[in-house]
Amino acid sequence: MAATPPRLWHFRISHYNEKVRWALDFKQWPHLRHALIPGWHIPTARRLSGQTALPILELDGRILHDSTAIIAEIERQRPDPPLYPPDPAARTRALAIEAYFDDEVAPDLRRLFWSCYLDHAAECARMATDGAGPLARATWRLLFPAMRPLFRRQLGADAERVATARQRLAGYFDRLESEIAPAGYLVGDRFSIADLAAAAVMTAIIRPPQFSYPLPEPWPPELVELRGSVAHRAGLRWVLDIYERHRGASSEIDATATA
Questions:
Q1: What residues pair up with 10 in beta bridges, in sequence order?
Q2: What value does the mean pLDDT take over residues 76-99?
Q3: What distance in Å separates the CA atoms of residue 64 and residue 56, rounded to the nearest whole number?
């Protein structure tokens, strides 16, 4: 067990980052959080890990990145309550579902989410800097015209790929709904990494009330329309139910308490 609390560098808005927050909270593992601002996070991420993606977790003096690898180490150190099914075949299936949502679904949903904001400078600045204060918001908005092409390129949020992601969306819900077992979970009869990963990834467009950081209001009309387009899906209702039953309370601790 770590002698000092884990320290998480994260984006408040991101579904990949929500996976790690949820795992830490599910394990009731007290931890510190440092929310970074998209675009401005790069120097910190490079200094810590030599790469630019978040989340990043400091654990036992080691720096971990990639949500799947981080959760695997969290599970190794804190096996109770378990996220990985004990049965080897069930564990393999659960990890395959996690990989599908991470690798196939998450990039498209991130693309769709950001495409709803990139044409709205004020809303985008408010979303990206939420929790950071008015000066950060004003500065981010001032710099946004120069940053917007970089965001589009990094996210693959050009018109063609956004349109392709929108076309694939129904198929992602089809796959999710096909995996839901009679017990209401994706693998077996209890909550596992499969449910956590699928539900967290889908929050890019669903945003349950229990999501760690609500989006600033009002939402861009494109995001309202996008969520409305899947409001009838059983998969959306499943995500809301999983969040209501299993998201639980935050285990974040105040940084001043460890000073």
A1: 35
A2: 97
A3: 6
